[in-house]
Predict the 3D structure of the following.
Amino acid sequence: MNRPISRRTVLRGLGAALALPSLEAMRAAQGAASAPPLRMAFLFVPNGVNVEHWFPRRTGFAFDLPQTLQPLARFQDDLLVISGLTHNGGRPNGDGPGDHARCASVFLTGAQPRKTSGAGIRVGVSVDQIAAKHKGSRTPLPSLELGCEPGRSSGNCDSGYSCAYSSSISWATPSTPLGKEVNPRLVFERLFSQGTGSSERRQRRGLQAEFQKSILDFVAEDARRLGRRLGPADRRKLDEYLEGVRTVEQRIAKLEERTVEEQGPAALAKPPGIPSDYGEHLRLMADMMVTAFQSDLTRIATFMFANAGSNRSYRMVGVPEGHHSLSHHGNNSAKLAKIAQINRFHVQQFAYLLERLRAIPEEDGTLLDHCMIVYGSGIHDGNRHNNENLPIILAGRANGTIDTGRHLRVPRETPMTNLFLSMLDRFGVSIDWMGDSTGRLSGLTL
Amino acid sequence: MSGPRSSFLLLVLFSVRGRGRRLARCWLGLGLLCAAGAYACSPAQAQPPTVKELARRLETGDRDARREAARELAERGKQAREALPQLIRGVRDRDPQIWHFSIMAIDRIGEEAAQAVDVLVKQLSAYPPQRRYRASVALGHIGRPAIAALQTALKSRDAKVRAAAADALGVMESEAAPAVDRLARLLEDSEEAVRLAAAQALGKIGGPAVNAVQPMLVSSKPEARAAAAAAVGFLGKVEPAVSGSLAELAKDESPLVRAAALQALVKLHGVSAKHAPLFGDALFGEDETVRRAAFNAIAAARDVPDTLLATMMRKAKTATEEVQRDVVFLLGRHASPRSGAVDVLLQLAENKPALREPVLRSLVRMGSPAVPALLEALQAHPQSADLLVDALAQIGGAARTALLRAVRSDQEAVRASAVMALGRLPVDSRTRQSLIARLEDSSGLVRAAGVTALAAQVSQTDGELREMLLGRVDDGDPRVRSAVATALRRLESIRPEVRQAMARLLADSDVDVRRCALETLADWPLLSEEIVSALQQLAQRNDPRIAVPLLALAVRHRSLLSGSDRAWRRVAQRAARGSSAKGRKAAAAFWGTLSARDQTAQNELARLIGDQDESVSLSALKAIPRLSKESNVLWRAVTDRIRQGSSAQRSAAIGRLDRLTRSVDKRKRILLELIGSDDWAVRAEACRALGEMGRQAKDAVPQLLELLRSADDEQAARRALQQIGTAGPEAVPLLRELLRERNPRRRAYAVYLLGRVEPAPVELLDELKKLRGNRGDERFRRLLESTIRRIEQAESADGS
């Protein structure tokens, strides 16, 4: 029989603190049925897309899924493909080259970045940080910033634009980019040792390394005590959750053991802790985002698959050339085909994230039903470097307030920030404007 | 520094009296002045500029200052109205950021920005589109004061202006009522964008627009009728007479009008029983635009009458595939499972495999209410059992209770499917017991399903379940034994009882059982003696039906080939000559493991490299190992592929050259030939391979430098040159030419490489020094200095 427990119950041990997923016993404590909280996440991919293989031809329901979006077939009912959105702040507007730096910095802010590679960087506050400022105090972590490519916060990375612009999409103030975490181990530590002292954490890590222990070993006693208070369904849910945490931990350890793959004399050595298997790196970060949402450690996250202008190669899908180089395709069909392969690889990782979200049951549905996940790029076509008709997908039904399963085409020049305002409304944050917004985005509900 | 602060400091300074303390006073004063300066300038203390100050900055000659001022004013909302005159002038600024922020600021001032109407209306014809869009929105937010000017703009000759003006009026909603007549006339405009903008604007204006729109419903122009119908749909609430007109328009001769009328009808009334026949006819009609409109209208509706659903179910069987897909979607969204929709959907999937996935999604979309119908359908549609199991599993926990009942059905197929579906749900103790009971079922099909379902649940420590599954190794039904063979994948392969079970299954009389066992074995890291022995016997039998998994095992576990490998070779030879591409690929992988020294293996592999099937050829290329001695037959096969294969084959073949020969010259010859290929992918691969050769590919530098001139090849060539890192004297003339190019990257690269030519081109030193005076970017200057230094060092080293 379930005895009520608080939503903020945490399993504790030496230098470890594991928040819990939503359990029936917590809902009993809360009394009347409360709707699950809404979560939002923003995923960024660089260099635009192969346009022909991205945008569906049909609008409305049961739209055709072009080649790049095929991995999302199982989730077609859960997402909106949106075409027509624009980021005017990504255009040169008199500042000349630097499209990649602009496209990343404008992606969640809707603001034109000030062209500088030194002091005085300025863009705008990003939508995730607007949400975090208003609602972030409700969770242990106001927001989570993830990535797979380290970046620099200074120096010239793109034609006179600071590296801070290319490697950040999350901005706490117009001049303060939030660094993303690219090391899965550090993300794991951040999620599962909130509120513990640094000396305790060091001690715990030392014991883990020496005795090959898991973080779960340190909270085992607490877990057993809690288990005795839970009913069978909650016990099973707790077991599955802890199993999931353990799996993530094992995968991180496995990746750390592998040697860094040599990329050739032209490349720099990877910083330690950055996995060489890019696909697994992406999936690990996705899993940790899911766990953070599931256990209500945070309700807001951003994830840069790669920095703006990234020239990473994608040998795992048979593309040894650099992504950025290929994106200047000059309408060469071989290059376009390879760009489509890269785009599809990214979408497959996005599908993985959606699968994980959908696999977690919550009241009245699944975790995915209670999310708003934006996936896209700040550039339409990498060859033209244009910023209108951006490739954008919005996944999740936002607690039933978004009618998904459609391709929505919005009028030309509609600011992407209009979408963000609509998302903020649903998140419980009502503001008059952000960035270059002109109002809310119509068409999200029928 | 402010007055009070400096006074305070002076007071502190001169309160320290006395000659002996003069020096101390000076230092103290200096320190206090610095601290005060930092304090005064600290961000926490900097006050944001006033609107008045920003307005002043907006008029300075400094572009950056004007930009910042405009940006700040755009953040101030209504407070920026004090700067309105400057903002109006800012709208005319040439700088895109200044006019953009100025318009944004005016937009956010709203109705108090009436002064800006004229300048904004002028922007409606400006370029780029963003300017028109911003101005249109801003005019809309100004509201009533802008109506007169916008009504004039509605008559502009420029369609973009008319559309933007209509959009602006729409933003005003009911305030724009005075403009409804003009807007209604635009429903007859020659431009579609204008008609659409007018229709939307009228819809947002609401009530007063109805009378203006109504006459257009009977316009002689079909485009006007369509636009009017759309406007009615946007209006939402209208009188019955108006919606009656829509129903007539849904039968119009023009498909454009019919489509618009249907979309409007659903916005007003949903899909009512009265209008259901209209939607039904449209959905199965000939015109794609109308079909699409009907489909989206029905999909968007909250409820759909049974009559329409019945029509869809009746007509779907004979419709085109495209229409069938639409019907499948709509049935999943709207049909009750008890209405017979499940049967219709299954029939469609059975007749057309391409519809399987859409049907599956529709069944899942029906959710838990569909479970009883799905279970019933197991009897009537045994050939759709897999599809039904998938749907039940995806519907998930809500289906559990019904499934637990279904496992006791008197129909074998129903029991089996229910068991399969239960196995895919998270298992609780009740489900587990129920599945265990099925292991004793009278039907082999059900027992096999039970094994599969339980295998999905078994964990490494579950001894009870493991024993039960292994207990089925001797089951009389081969389907059960096959299921056990697959289930072994989930058990710990180091356990003796598991290994014994595997050995027995490998020796099974049924080929499917043996195949399943082999496929499971592919994941096992180690093979026991009894398993090796069983595999050797299988190789002796040389059964082509199991050649693929058998050869895959041989590739993974080379120990199988120690001692006599004759039997295995026979298996591989037979597979290599078979009709199955899978078999030939497996053979290629096998021969690849032996090719390092074995002539026969090399011959076989060479044959497969030349295979007609591209995937087989690629597998064979991939299988080439590093050879201990050059093989003419493999070299010929690979170079033939390079010369005559597909792009993928040529790229793969180039990538294998370093495994075939250690001779750098031999590889270089062929790679240099390939740099001139007309296939970009081949050129890129050749550049990559040359780069990997490092300094040994020095004499390829001139050709690579030529490739630098092509935008397509520049990246690949540059990478290769970086990896080679040096050049010979033959490259110097080309490098000198590149120094004169306009492209800064190529110039920079040329000067970089000149510093690495061996021997150093001392004769160029003066020429390079002259370049110091030229304008060039920072990177070029740095590289130039570095190159000059290197050449000078080489010169003095030669001299000494």
